[in-house]
Description:
Largest sheet: 5 strands, parallel
Distance between the termini: 31 Å
Radius of gyration: 16 Å
CATH class: Alpha Beta
Number of domains: 1
CATH architecture: 3-Layer(aba) Sandwich
Order of helices and strands: HEHEHHHEHEHHEH
Strand content: 5-15%
Amino acid sequence: MADELARLAALLAGRIGRTVVLVGLMGAGKSCVGRRLAARLGMDFLDSDAEFEAAAGCTISDYFARFGEAAFRDGERKVIARLLDGSPVVLATGGGAFVDPATRQRIKAAGTSVWIRADLDLLLKRTVGRDHRPLLKQGDPREILGRLMDARYPVYADADIIVDSTDEIPEATVIRVMEGLIAYLDSEKTA
């Protein structure tokens, strides 16, 4: 696997001129995969949730509780716009970011979007028992994630690249993302 990662990284060397934006539901593996992808590509990794918390001076859960989801989405939109205006990085976004039309348009204009898609059972396995997911505190996590999948998956499907996350080691997903980037960049060259 290490040889394949090195081979793909060599094929991508010097070809990525835009931010690689990872989108998908909570628990899909955006941050985990993003950190490994950035290291392989020699790029910086940023997490829009962490950047939001640094700007707000509190956790997203606290912000949600104090100001509500609409205020959070507005702040998230501004943080992602600022991050997209910087040098190209690998950027993991919150689960609802790409659903926002203005954010999605901004990502399309300034980045290459990669949907990390996962099934419901895997998302549940990765999110149950973690208390930093404000949307999952509002009822049964399986029902909430199912509803979010129904609402968001059709929007995530608008991403430039779609990669499945499975219950394998994260590097397996990193390989699929890198293969997707190569195919996408090759198709842009011929378009």
